Amino acid sequence: MGTLAHTSVSGAIDLLSPPLRLRLLGQFRLERGTENLELCRNGQRLLAFMGLRGRVSRTILAGTLWPEVTEEHARGSLRTTLWKLPRGEPPLVRCCGDTLVVTPALRVDVDTLTKAAFGVLQGYGAPAHVPPPLGLLTVEDLLPGWDEDWVRVERERLRQLRLHALDALAETLVREGKPALALEAAWASVRTEPLRESAHRAVVSAHLAEGNVSEAVRHYHAFRALLNEELGVEPSPRFARMLPVRPPERAAAHDPGGLLGWSG
Questions:
Q1: Looking at the structure, do residues 78 and 192 belong to the same domain, yes or no?
Q2: 3-class SS string, the chain
Q3: How far apart are CA 113 and CA 105, in angstroms?
Q4: 59-68 — which CB contacts under 8 Å span 24+ positions?
Q5: Structural domain for 162, as ranges
Q6: Can you tell me the distance from the alpha carbon of 140 to that of 231, in angstroms, rounded to the nearest whole number?
Q7: Which percentage of the chain shows pLDDT scores above 70?
Q8: Residues 67 and 189 in one domain
């Protein structure tokens, strides 16, 4: 009986505790409710790595965060950094033998982005009254300005995931008869990577879905000119076949209508 009562009280305390949020998209922020918790630089690096991985061995964590010192020194730095983390219930990081585990109570914005992106890519249908997750996919990069190798790798992974999800979302919205929203998703992908053909195909597909053939053709030629100027290559035959009229053999030497003004 005592154990059940303790569990019940603990659960009630957890429900009343301010939510813990870790924001890694954009500037690093650790929040408890409306309070912004301050961490030292090493504390930020440790919690960012743990927030991305969830659980990791001490050896891997110490070697990743302090790669240029001896293992003994790295483990000492890890112990010091763990000791300096903000105190609270539940603790941010708990030890399970040689493994460190981030608390399940910590809500990480990268997890929200990843869930939304995979939901789009795997075709999970949302109720008709639920808006598409465009806002969740048009976020800042992971920890801009951080230059550690592990951050760069994860940043590029998330960037590619977002781009694929935006392209897929645009295609889905076209099929659902929502070309205006499809254009928003397609342009978000174009702004992130102006030379990405799949994003431009999504723009053209949305224009064609609205019956705006002239805008579709103009956009194709604008992208063709940009691609020729930047890389000296042509769009794929697949892209050309989307148009109801055959494009000329050579791309124009200018940007028709200034459609690709984002590149500057």
A1: no
A2: CHHHHHHHHHHHHHHHCCCEEEECECCCEEEECCEEECCCHHHHHHHHHHHHHCEEEHHHHHHHHCCCCCHHHHHHHHHHHHHHCCCCCCCCEEEECCEEEECCCEEEHHHHHHHHHHHHHCCCCCCCCCCCCHHHHCCCCECCCCCCHHHHHHHHHHHHHHHHHHHHHHHHHHHCCCHHHHHHHHHHHHHHCCCCHHHHHHHHHHHHHCCCHHHHHHHHHHHHHHHHHHHCCCCCHHHHHCCCCCCCCCCCCCCHHHCCHHHC
A3: 17
A4: 59/98, 61/100, 64/150
A5: 109-263
A6: 27
A7: 84
A8: no
**pLDDT score, position 130:** 56
Can you give the pLDDT at residue 125?
Answer: 54
- Tally of domains within the chain: 2
In a domain, 12, yes or no: no
**Please, which pLDDT band fits residue 90 given cuts at 50, 70 and 90?**
confident
pTM (2 d.p.): 0.81
Is the pLDDT higher at 16 or at 51?
A: 51
Better-predicted residue by pLDDT, 221 or 133: 221
Average pLDDT over the chain, rounded to an integer:
87
For Cα atoms 107, 110, 113, give the angle at the middle one, nearest 5 degrees. Answer: 110
Mean of the pLDDT values across residues 23-48? 95
